Amino acid sequence: MGSKIHLLNNYYPWSEIRFNGFEFFLKGNVFLNDRFIYPEKLAELIYPLIRSEDGSQETELAEFVERLKGEFAIVVDAGDRIFCAVDKLRSIPLFYSLEEDDFLLSDTACFLKDKCNSRLNEKNAAEFMVAGYVTGEETLFDGIKQVKNGEFLIYQKKDKLLKTSSYFRFLHGIYFDTSELQLLEMLDHAFVNAFSRLIESTVNKGKKLVVPLSGGLDSRIIIGMLKRLGVNDVICISYGRKGNRESLISKKVSEALGYKWLFVEYTARKWYECYNSKEADQFQNMAGNLSSLPHMQDFLALRELKIQGKLSDNSVFVPGHSGDMLAGSHIPRNYLDNSRKYDLAVLLDDSLRKHYNLWKWPQGSELEHIFKEKIKKCASGLEIADNNSCANAIEFLDFNERQAKFIINSVRVYEFFDYEWRIPLWDAELIYFFLKVPLKYRISQHIYKKYARDLLFSGELSVLNEIDCTTDMLDLRPLDERSKYEKLQYYRTFIHSYYDEKIDNPVWGRYFENPMISRLQIKVTRYENKTIEEYPLLKNILEYRNEKMYPLSINGLGALIFLARNIT
Length: 568
Fold this sequence. Notes:
The protein has 568 residues and is α/β, with parallel strands linked by helices. The protein has helices spanning 39-51, 57-67, 109-116, 122-131, 180-201, 217-228, 245-256, 268-275, 278-288, 299-308, 323-327, 344-355, 366-378, 387-407, 412-416, 428-434, 439-442, 446-456, 463-466, 484-503, 515-522, 536-548, 554-566, and strands at 3-6, 15-19, 22-32, 35-37, 69-77, 81-86, 95-99, 102-106, 145-146, 151-156, 161-166, 208-212, 234-240, 260-265, 315-317, 420-421.
């Protein structure tokens, strides 16, 4: 078989370029020194670095790739070697296998599984079932690896040597020693630059922006920045149960800025028919790639808008991933207290609680040992001695695993329906800014919320402060320091959101033709899956749920069904 490249995902086409005998495959949108770089120019720039034979090759490659901004994947067949790299987010995933003399590189993990006749790794499957992704370089199947975010790979064909190298790590440090006002001004500068790059690669090239607008802060910042920078032709979309609070807020925000607003009503019947279609099966295979839970939430909306022809073919989706996490929302609030003990045990417990929760599983069991060992491996080399270093480790794991493999991977749904996408809130300049923001400004997204409330949403955009928001942004004080009325407003938001998501969520129609009745029945009955029960670790998770009668979660059930479809 030898060494081969198989790029089979045509939903988001690769640019193929031949340059001086090398074959380049490029996908995405790249900026270098704040200038948009076309694929031909990128191939020309990276060519001498890959061709180099001296010992500085890897260092120069790492320095060059780190300087690139944007979303991208690069694959090069250089004759005697193969090179590939993904961006800092792994927004365009790549996979590989190496068995004896055969090296295969692909953007389609299922292709590698079929070629290599790989076996299911049950420990990885258990992790997937409770987290929604497989950590590190592994996938659900032995021998199939994924190129991690911020990483490049070189395979020497003659010597059959494979080496992966990290060119970027999401680590905080060398914190800004400046005032809050100066931080806000620096953040504003980074935002303007990030959105200027977005506009350069889309609007200035005749493309139309579509923003999935929720009731929260991230997507509101996106349309606020677009309006501020003079982009007036934007479509905002929302979806869900008719009259749901997120959509009502979304409509008000869109209308306040004069943007077109489209709504797709979700019903259980629509979801049942859609989810059980051949098209949905194809999407899940394409998006899951044996490593990530496919993000189905937007699927029905995109499908309906596509069928109805309400979006132009040159539309580019701009989702709000994941300004809140970058700004510090996933750091436990009690990390402000540096008098308590911080060590590896704290990191493990907090990470398990936050990320390994799609299914309840027995504490103190073999499963806990497996999951903790996986977290330890991902956090290897990180020193945890105080609140700063523990928060650093929490966000390092979150960025590399949940964000890269689950949240960012949700953009596959746009590709499936032939649309481009951009994720400006993960722009490299914003990343590097927040990596230097002190902990006290990141906990509870302090500087991020303050920026939106006091700086961005001011002047002509002050109306965005007047419209309700599902993100608690208008009061930066801790809840226990607020008045009874302020607490009531906070809990009102929480109760509305809880009802929309947990009680009357039509998305349950994916799995049940009559979701309300079926969910009530499941609360007092066993949930079974014969395929899953063949594997002891997976059966243990399912049996524990059946014994305790814990409620099922939408993503938990989705993970189980995805496993059942792919492990045979």
